Amino acid sequence: MNYQLPVHPEEATKKLFGVLPKRTKDVLEQRFGLGKNSARLTLEAIGQKYGITRERVRQIEADGLGRIRKSPAMAELGSVFEALEAYFNKEGRVLKEGAVLEALAPHPKHANHVYFLLSLHNPMVRLHESDEFHDRWALGVESDADARKSLDGAVDALRKTGKPVQENELFEILSASAKNVFGGSPQDAVLGNWLGLSKLISKNYFGEWGLVEFPEIKPRGVRDLSHMVLSRLGKPLHFSAVADEIGKLVGKKVHTQTVHNELIKDERFVLVGRGLYALKTWGYSPGVVRDVICDLLKKNGPIAKEKIISAVLKQRFVKPNTVFINLENRKYFKKSPDGKYSLK
Predict the structure, then answer these.
(1) Which of 295, 338, 344 shows the shortest CA–CA distance to 316?
(2) The RNA polymerase sigma-70 region domain covers which part of the protein (predicted)?
(3) Mind listing the pLDDT tens digit for each residue in 228-271?
(4) CATH number where 272 lies
(5) Looking at the domain assignment, is residue 226 inside a domain?
(6) How much is the average pLDDT of 13-21?
(7) Neighbours of 221 (CB within 10 A)
């Protein structure tokens, strides 16, 4: 959602730069990408351009920002900075940088101007990205700490759950975590903004939420995608159908043979028929029909043919005659006078 500042960001910047000497103005324009080149240059790059040290560039930058903050122009634009604080207070006090710039810049080309205005305002703090969080702006470091604690609590709760959850469940988890931090829970809109800060929590193809370490959330290759498809559909599928379903998810064709090769290698999947795969967690035991019969007889002792066939057909999608042919293999099974079969 866009939020309109009382003064256009580019106009505000122009007014503030009016109090600066030319070289200082040039340095700040390059540091913040406010000139013809929108790239934000490093201290090193600017120093090389002027033949001065990076430390000298830093001093010029600090001097320029100090002059602007003390200038009458800064005071005249007080409504802009009040509006920035109001926006942050409404949206949760700490926000992902990309979301802030998108919401406050009338056009993407004005994003650097918003960035500059945020940098000028002392209560605003920019926090760099880490392994767990994205680049973000906060109305005070305490606000960032509170949001991070709330998200950390949600991550711990999701890790204990160990599987994806629906969006409403995620918000309940994050709300409960925030309540432990604040003693009260922010609105869902604020919780949603905080979720945008996290690199650890994400949404999968089906709109379910969880940790990126969950294969159901961030599948790592064909095997995880196959597991996601079968888990979602809840029934055995031919490997070609698995490939088709993966293709629908990722938006591009997946080679059928690649899927077959990966399913064979992964113990999470069990071949239960000609090209049909199921998940081991559904209760299917690995192996060929003979192996299923052996396991059955090991657990239960001698069993009548009809019961063996019935039990095997729950594990394998084969014809009854296929089970009977395996039973007749005298190398592995023997038939007693009462008609029951046992291991040899």
Answers:
(1) 295
(2) 18-70
(3) 999 989 999 999 999 999 999 999 999 999 999 999 999 999 99
(4) 1.10.10
(5) yes
(6) 96
(7) 10
In whole angstroms, how far apart are CA 305 and each of 114, 223, 287, 323, 337? 78, 37, 20, 9, 13
Q: Do 298 and 266 belong to one domain?
A: no
Task: Count how many domains the chain has.
Answer: 4
CATH code at 48?
A: 1.10.10.10
In a domain, 125, yes or no: no
* DSSP 8-state class, residue 140: S
Of the three residues 262, 282, 302, the one that is the final residue of a domain is: 282
Residue 246 CA, chain-centre distance (Å), reads: 19
* Distances from the Cα of 26 to the Cα of 9, 21, 52, 57, angstroms: 18, 9, 14, 11
Residue 269 shares a structural domain with residue 231: yes
- Contact 215/229 with Cβ under 8 angstroms? no
Domain containing residue 56: 20-70
User: Is residue 237 one of the residues assigned to a domain?
Assistant: yes
Residue count (the chain): 344
Strands 94-96 and 269-273: unpaired
Task: Please report whether residue 121 resides in a domain.
Answer: no
Please tell me the distance from the alpha carbon of residue 243 to that of residue 226, in angstroms, as a whole number: 8
Tell which residue, 264, 164, 260, has the closest CA to residue 214: 164
Alpha-carbon distance of 202 to 5, in angstroms, equals 31
| pLDDT tens, position by position, 47-87 | 999 999 999 999 999 999 999 999 999 999 999 999 999 99
Q: Predicted confidence band at 28 (pLDDT cuts at 50, 70, 90)?
A: very high
Q: State how far the alpha carbon of 126 is from the alpha carbons of 82, 86, 138, in Å.
A: 18, 17, 6
Out of 234, 263, 282, a domain closes at 282
